[in-house]
């Protein structure tokens, strides 16, 4: 039976999503925060979720959502998950049919989905539905016990006129709104210049406020490079993993356009890794597009090791 998902289903949904993709376990808290953010977003973002039940047990999940960061009124993102021991029983097919019917009522013109390269049956399933590969993204994992910070000592030194501090300390200095606005400028520039399959929509001040107070936010986990005049020149983010206290996840790392090629983002990233060590983390995870050659090279030199690629797939187009 396929039915609409309710908040009470989230513990079972989190278990299904984690079983389907154990490299990225999902918590109930993260599901609740994501649903709340989407439903309350001022752009009126769409969210629909379903579960598959067998004998009263939830055995599959499907979701359709619009993302603020890549919003287009006719673009949707789909997630579909069935635990590996329950595949090839028609559960995914029935969920996909429900999703397709829903998207038809929405007159969707573009649908984004994806699967990992070490799950070829999932890739083939999407291909049969008419999806095509548009990009690949790699998880990279650094085991902090193998990290050698002494090799990077000179790279932690900033040019004159710059200093390192956390977003929390920057807010204490500048006031919350002024600090977030300065952070927002470089955040939007860095996102816009990242290799991506859909154009990055700029965040607003209200959106960045929600972003930086997500349940996975790590106190002092966003490291900034700031000029003497109070401008944010570069940033590197670390986030808690809500299912594993020994793991941290890297968010955005980037530099404002007119401050690039001075090693600022690398210095911020190295400061973040030192914070991770102090935090007691065992691993740091990051994700990079296969076309983001400079960042992949930096991560490789730092000791990050690649996981199987996530294959981004697309049906239709809004272009």
Automatic annotation (TrEMBL):
* EC number assigned by the record: 2.3.1.-
Its protein name is GNAT family N-acetyltransferase
Ranges where the N-acetyltransferase domain occurs: 1-151, 165-319
Species of provenance: Deinococcus antarcticus
Keywords attached to this entry: Acyltransferase, Transferase
GO molecular function annotations of the record: acyltransferase activity
